[in-house]
Amino acid sequence: MRQDNFIWQRKDLLGTYDLSKEEILYLLDTAKSMEEVLERDVKKVPTLRGKSVVTLFYEPSTRTRTSFELAAKILSSDTINISVPSSSATKGETIFDTVKNIEAMSADCIIIRHNMSGVSEFIANQTRLAVVNAGDGSHEHPSQALLDLLTIRDYKGKIEGLKIAIVGDVLHSRVARSNLFALKKLNNTVNFVGPVTFVPQEFENLGAHVYHNLEEGLADVDVVMVLRLQKERMGRCFYPSEREYAGFFSINSSTIKYAKEDVIVMHPGPVNRGVEISSDLLDSKRSVVLDQVKRGVAVRMAILYSLLSGGRIEDSNK
Amino acid sequence: MKIVINNATIVTSSGVFRKNILVKDCIIDKISDDIFKEKGADLVINNRELLVFPGLMDIHTHLREPGFEYKEDIETGLTSAHYGGFVSVGVMANTNPVNDNSTVTHFMKCRAKQTGIPVELHPVAAITKGLEGENLTEMGELKEAGAIAFSDDGKAVKSSEIMRRAFEYAKTFNMTIFCHSEDSTLSREGQINEGEMSIMLGLKGIPREAEILGIYRDLTLAKLTGGTVHITHISTKEGVELVRKFKKEGVRVSCDTCPQYFTLTEKILMGYNTLAKINPPLRTESDRLAIIEGLKDGTIDIISSDHAPHHRDEKHCEFDRAAFGMIGLETMVPLCLELVRIGALDFNDLAEKLSRKPHKIFNLPTPKIKEGEEAVFTIIDPNYEWTVSEETLHSKSKNTPFLGKTLKGKAKYIIKGGKSFELF
Q1: Which of B194, B196, B272 best probes binding to A when mutated, by most A CB atoms within 10 angstroms?
Q2: pLDDT exceeds cutoff 90 at A91
Q3: pLDDT number for residue A90
Q4: Is the separation of the CB atoms in B211 and B193 below 8 Å?
Q5: pLDDT for residue B1
Q6: A117, A139, A192: best mutation site toward chain B, by most B Cβ within 10 Å?
Q7: CB neighbourhood size of B372 (10 A)
Q8: If residue A135 lies in a helix (H) or strand (E), which one and from where to where?
Q9: How far apart are CA B308 and CA B61, in angstroms?
Q10: What distance in Å separates residue A174's CA from the closest CA in chain B?
Q11: What is the least distance, in Å, from the CA of A294 to any CA of chain B?
């Protein structure tokens, strides 16, 4: 399965929009081979020994940050975490200066999360550091999309020709955009489902199918991806109440019946139980939410390996 | 002082001719089919490539002084205007302190005079005190101090009632309300045009309807009050259509657009190009074409630059944090000449939109290329190719998406006040 003749060329991973089909499959296959390391008793390979990875997070995160850090540590790189409240950002330093300072300290890679769209691209253009976008505003979150694709492939046995519904606050969702771009590259059908305020018609220009009710949007789908209401990114008046939202767009044991029998349910987290997804469905065997999280570590190992190893495979344990 | 211009193409209101001009002191002494004797002249211009335009005016600039001298000041702004080919500029009021009182208006005019740069500075004073949209400025006194119109540019007056009173009160003094028309409750926190690009880039959109509603309101209030309205920097197809409709109804309306709106579209924002972050935002191809159509049929009277200098740090940052605006004084002439090259306008239309109409609409003496008139010329080399760069621009700020682009056409001489200035 592994694409052996493929050579990774990019300095950065900023989004899935620019990735080719080959690059996506290479990352998925590389992640697959990383999973083996995670099964070992001693979860450590020396691949990135001597490299240093800095996570720079301007927004709170549990999963993404932890799994990037774990991924970096398993690959033996040194990791440092900087988060905004404890950093110079509160003293008025610009993100540009922060990054240039980290660069001056001879780091190799910076993983950035920011509440504004486009920030990782802005930074990547002016640093020699490898830049990984760990989520920029409402724009992209490529590592999440890749781990979603890997999860889908593992459950469905393929990652082409499937039908995937993404339900909820698509407008403010970087997860939805990164998934759309990646899934379309691999010839899948993507439905965006939600009220018009969250799913404007313009998404059709990007190749999504737009639906405003669950019955139509979930018809015949293999995968349902549920999104959280991103209150921190919304202005006013996007929806009247959580109660009303849940009444029409919550994924629960009755609405999931619109989808295929063997549908899997995904969620990038954090989950608001009882709002966008019901508690019982989240805990049911259709839900693969924790498998997504598990694959997150392998995918992030694959990303760091691709950007930092320069194609070298060193594994003294083998 | 004697200036001889032989073999040039002159752009007059009665046509475009190959003629020869003799200027004595400040005055156009003779325009003739015969070549003038070059001996004894203080300056001879003899170049068949050149176009003699009446002196150009840019009605919409931000020169940032007082208050924001780190972006631009009156001296650097006027220098930029001079090298762009302009003999006069309208200057917006969003300085600090705001130009909402005659002291600031006087200061701007005095500073301009002190610089000795041959560009007239015409303040466009604020409509409301502090640009806060609440209390009217002392419009009578501001007019006496030299204001040519009133505008809260960049911050549209929110209250329709206050806007109505502004139209009425300005009418007392025969003054124009110069509108940046925008429903800011709809465009709130928007970054770029709402549509394909805002969806793809995950940026908050500014719906075109914010401009359409703003223009509709301002035109309707001008109609209600019988006031005079100028709509600035039109960027949408529907905006052009509204002006066309209200002109037909006899409302006293004029309008302008800027080269960016007939040259660029929102596509250039791919990659989060903060240099192309402007307000109103760059729109779509169909808007761009409708604006060219509006220029062709005369709906759009004037081309202005909306020259909005910003410091490098204000553009070199996160897109959401970047300032709105681009400089434009020095790229106006080549970008407008492009309209002639594509056959949309002719040289006479350009003279209308860059010189005659701007002066006329704001009640200023219109430069004429006619015997006995004062010689105020912008002499353009339409074929001169140059590259926009930090080095070639004279503005203190360099924030333009045209950086690195090669443009065709540049003002070569300015003739004004009995003096000539060679620009390159």
Answers
A1: B272
A2: no
A3: 65
A4: no
A5: 85
A6: A117
A7: 9
A8: strand A130-136
A9: 7
A10: 8
A11: 28
